[in-house]
């Protein structure tokens, strides 16, 4: 969906719960930690910051930005959900200025959409951008895996083993959030072993919407088990100091993300964006307002 130009005049809307996403092949109940178990339309503990925080806009804006970004990427705030600027400002005990700065930055990243006279909404996952982002990530991670396999030390291999064990423990606890963190740590550690931690920083910037999509795949039966097995294959190649095998293993691991896009989108059509005109986006927002019983064009 083509995002509208960000407006400096922001308005607020009170968030309301919406239909939960349907994880890929997940059981009806939905395992703990999956997007279906997320509470939306309410402030999370991260938002409920103490009102004694410094009133300096700069540091506060960075804090609010980081909190909101985490909620958006983890799908605590679902696509099309309205975001209330005033509600967030009240929760942090600050003026709207630092909140507005954080929102504009998130809009620039494509995580929020700002519609003048209508409000602020969580963006849908841009399905057309996912393949390119995954391919860029794959190219970069194949590089770090190749270098890591050529120079990994015994202590570095132990660090990777420790992260992998954390993933197994997260799977046993059926904790998707903990697994996601350990998954991220595994790939970040490979970049560190390669001696290029900045590559992982770059990858994080590229894969922001891929992470939102990945959250929908974690509840898939056997998905985490397969991911751990693929990580074990990657680690084995690095430990064997076999660069070619390490490149092949991490390439196969990331290829699965490409293969699962269509099935995930079909089960969660309301969470993904297809290309649409500005007029189409405006009509969609108007329809959402009507469904919520609000007069179009007012917030």
Task: Explain what this protein looks like in three dimensions.
By secondary structure, the protein is mainly alpha-helical. Helices cover 58% and strands 4% of the residues. It has two domains: 148 residues, Orthogonal Bundle (Arc Repressor Mutant, subunit A); 136 residues, GntR ligand-binding domain-like (Four Helix Bundle (Hemerythrin (Met), subunit A)). A hairpin with a 3-residue loop joins strand 1 and strand 2. It is globular and about 60 Å long.
Estimate the global geometry from the Cα principal axes: globular
CATH-derived architecture of the largest domain:
Orthogonal Bundle
Number of helices: 12
Largest sheet report: 2 strands, antiparallel
Nearest-angstrom radius of gyration?
Answer: 20 Å
Structural domains: how many: 2
> Into which percent range does the helicity of residues fall?
55-70%
* Mean pLDDT score: 81
In short:
The protein has 299 residues and is mainly α. The protein folds into 2 domains: 1-123 and 275-299, Arc Repressor Mutant, subunit A, CATH 1.10.10.10; 128-263, Up-down Bundle (Four Helix Bundle (Hemerythrin (Met), subunit A)), CATH 1.20.120.530. It is 58% helix and 4% strand.
């Amino acid at each position: 969906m083509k995002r509208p130009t960000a407006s400096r005049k922001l308005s607020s809307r009170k968030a309301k719960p919406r239909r939960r996403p349907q994880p890929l092949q997940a059981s009806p109940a939905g395992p703990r930690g999956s997007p279906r178990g997320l509470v939306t339309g309410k402030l999370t503990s991260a938002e409920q910051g103490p009102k004694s925080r410094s009133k300096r806009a700069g540091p506060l804006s960075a804090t609010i930005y980081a909190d909101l970004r985490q909620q958006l990427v983890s799908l605590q705030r679902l696509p099309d959900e309205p975001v209330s600027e005033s509600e967030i400002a009240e929760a942090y005990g600050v003026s709207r200025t630092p909140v507005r700065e954080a929102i504009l930055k998130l809009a620039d990243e494509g995580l929020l959409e700002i519609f003048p006279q209508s409000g602020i909404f969580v963006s849908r996952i841009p399905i057309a951008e996912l393949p390119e982002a995954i391919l860029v990530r794959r190219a970069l991670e194949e590089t770090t895996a190749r270098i890591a396999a050529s120079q990994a030390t015994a202590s570095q291999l132990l660090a990777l083993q420790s992260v992998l064990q954390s993933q197994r423990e997260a799977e046993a606890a059926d904790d998707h959030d903990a697994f996601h963190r350990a998954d991220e740590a595994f790939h970040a550690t490979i970049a560190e072993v390669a001696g290029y931690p900045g590559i992982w920083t770059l990858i994080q910037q590229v894969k922001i919407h891929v992470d939102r999509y990945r959250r929908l795949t974690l509840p898939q039966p056997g998905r985490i088990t397969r991911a751990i097995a693929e990580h074990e294959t990657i680690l084995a190649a690095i430990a064997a100091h076999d660069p070619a095998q390490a490149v092949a293993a991490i390439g196969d691991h990331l290829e699965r993300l490409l293969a699962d896009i269509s099935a995930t989108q079909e089960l969660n059509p309301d969470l993904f964006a297809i290309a649409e005109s500005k007029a189409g986006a405006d009509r969609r927002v108007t329809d959402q307002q009507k469904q919520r019983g609000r007069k179009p064009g007012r917030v």
